[in-house]
Amino acid sequence: MSETKTFLALFADIDPAVNAIDRLREHGVNDDDMNVISGIPLTEHILGRPRVWSNVPRLALGGAVAGLAFGIFLAAGITNLYPLKIGRQGLVNGAPTVVLIFEMMMLGLMASTFIGVFLDSTFPSYRPKEYISEISDGKIAILFSIPEEKEAEVKEELDHLGAESITPAEKRQL
Amino acid sequence: MVATAEPLEQAHPVETESPQEHLMLDPRPRGEMNGMVMDAMNTRTWKFWVLVIFLGLTVVSCLFIAWGYLIAEGLGVAGVNKPAFWAIFLVNTVYWIGISHAGTFVSALLRVMKAEFRRPFTRAAELLTTFGLIQAGISIFMHMGRTWLAYWLFPYPNVRTLWPNFHSPLGWDFLAINTYLMASTMYLFLPLIPDLAMVRDRSTGWRKVFYRILSLGFRGTEGEWRHLRTAMTIFAWAIIPVMFSVHTIVAWDFANATRPGWSSTVFGPYFVVGALQSGIAAVGMVVVLIRATMKNMKYFIRPEHLDALGKLMLIVSMTWGYFFFQDYMVQWYGGDKFTQMLLEFHEKGPMGWMWFGMLIFNVGIPFITLWNKKIRRNPALLFTIGLLINVGMWFERYIIIPTSLTINRMPFTWRLYVPRIEILLSLGTLAFFILIYLIASRLIPLVPVWEVQEGQVAHGLRKVGKATVKTVSDIE
């Protein structure tokens, strides 16, 4: 069985990068064996790539539910645990309860959204990774793995499509 | 015979704008834009250091020492006394919370509305939110007097098993302001990550370590962008109602009391509009200052941006005028004896100059100036109008709080509030705000370069008939 090698192909523009993705597919590179790294967000529609699954919305929803429960606990739970009767006021009143529930629910929603980005992107991660600083200068990099015997052929094609460089992907300290 | 048509003479000359007028139509290579922003961050002239030292000394003397004195001696050294126990500290709190609305409005609401002009100055506005809320929090702690007992506001059972009273708007305030502070800080940080990664790639030494830690290992993979964008969309939608709730609850601190001048059903939206009024004016001022004082910023912040902010200022100013009149009309028409006396006191009392100043600065000046495109696009004039609006909005809060507390239903308690140490502390918070903003401007990219480039990729020109028009593609 042949060895696979990982390369980083660098493109200056979106169109050649998209063509290169199509060509890599034709060479049998699975979408799972490719990753596009860019300095601006390029959607799946632009790149013609499968949609990346994100847990952020679900985590956000979970956080909102947890916040709602905490809001109810603050507004209704503790007033029953430690009742403090004031005149003819009810222990749990509608309007203040709505305010507390709303604030806690929104806090839960946004905090869990924030945490969701960290979890889904495995942030923070300070290990060496395949990256070159030209990416934040607007270049688009395609990180892909191919069998060793296809290296020359694929490199030539990507060169032809306008790749600025195709280098073995090296993990380096960011 | 074939009829030939003479070209029609134009009734009015059409004002043509160069495509270069628009940042989105004047793209530069990303590397160059990165370099420009890095240059702006790394340029520190002697004037910068003089200003930092001056502000630092002001903060030490007017904030730390003066606050220490207040804590040591007690609230007796402040001007607060019967009947105005709520005074400048709360004026400042409301004012700074108002300023904090700018970031959310500009960044979140305009993002949701896909207003493209927002792109280069969203971060400058978001910083206003976070730093403004810090000043608001400091002002509340000053108002407490016994600052070390602040933890009594936390919901925990004390020895008498009395919890904070969640029936009080002050308790809601505590939750709402904290929610907003945390949310706006997270919302500031998320879109900052790619820019921090950009700075990391161009830094050396301790700065490299600093930005490596802050950028969390971001590279810009498809997954990272996807999660980031999803989160930013959720934040943009979720933070807007929180923004509205914060100032509405601040308004309820007053409106839920049965005091003359305060008990008003319109206070919630009136306060929100007031917050937007001062906030957007503050964004206008900050944008002009950044453009004038930071290197390369004239490329990113152009007359088109000042123009758009000027229009927003005008619209919000007219809305504020409408809400003010609505509040005034109902209070005046109600005919309550003490409310009538209060309204008369506002206009003809010793603080009448402030009441008229408020109307002139908040409505009069914006109304007669901001209709004019040339004025909107003039940085010095826009800055001046923004400054006057902010002074006017501070006056408004002063009139609502200590001036209105002067007149109540017990005439034997009437007494005009005169600030004492509060003046120093107000200057201290203002200096602290400017100082941390100034330091932040050299530590983080004030222009979100990736958002600007994203906008430039989406924009183009298209021929429609004989006209060449701007177009924007939805690439999200």
Brief digest:
Chain A has helices spanning 14-26, 44-47, 56-81, 94-120, 151-161, and strands spanning 4-11, 34-38, 129-130, 140-147, 165-168, 171-172.
Can you put this structure into words, describing what you see?
By secondary structure, chain A is α+β, with helices and mostly antiparallel strands. Chain A has two domains: 4-53 and 126-172, Alpha-Beta Plaits (2-Layer Sandwich), CATH 3.30.70.120; 56-120, no CATH class. In chain A, 47% of the residues lie in helices and 17% in strands. Chain A has five helices and six strands. In chain A, helix 1 (14-26) packs antiparallel against helix 5 and helix 3 packs antiparallel against helix 4 (94-120). Chain A is rod-shaped and about 85 Å long. The relative contact order of chain A is 0.28. Chain B has 476 residues and is mainly α. Chain B has a single domain (22-472), classed as Up-down Bundle (Formate dehydrogenase/DMSO reductase fold), CATH 1.20.1630.10. Helix content of chain B is 68%, strand content 3%. Chain B contains 17 helices and two strands. Chain B has a two-stranded antiparallel ribbon. In chain B, a hairpin with a 2-residue loop joins strand 1 (459-464) and strand 2 (467-472). Residues 1-15 of chain B have low confidence and may be disordered. The interface between A and B is large, with 60 and 62 residues.
Oligomer: heterodimer
**Uncertain runs of chain B:** 1-15
The average pLDDT of chain B is 91
Strand line-up of the largest beta sheet of chain A: 2-4-1-5
**Strand pairing plus helix content of chain A: what structural class?**
alpha+beta
Count of discrete structural domains of chain A: 2
Output the radius of gyration of chain A. 25 Å
The CATH architecture category of chain B equals Up-down Bundle
* Structural classification of chain B: mainly alpha
Quantity of strands of chain B, as a count: 2
Distance between the termini of chain A: 33 Å
Portion in strands of chain A: 15-25%
Uncertain segments of chain A of ≥5 residues (pLDDT<50)?
Answer: none
Looking at this structure, what is the CATH superfamily of chain B? Answer: Formate dehydrogenase/DMSO reductase domain
Q: What's the level 1 CATH class of the largest domain in chain A? A: Alpha Beta
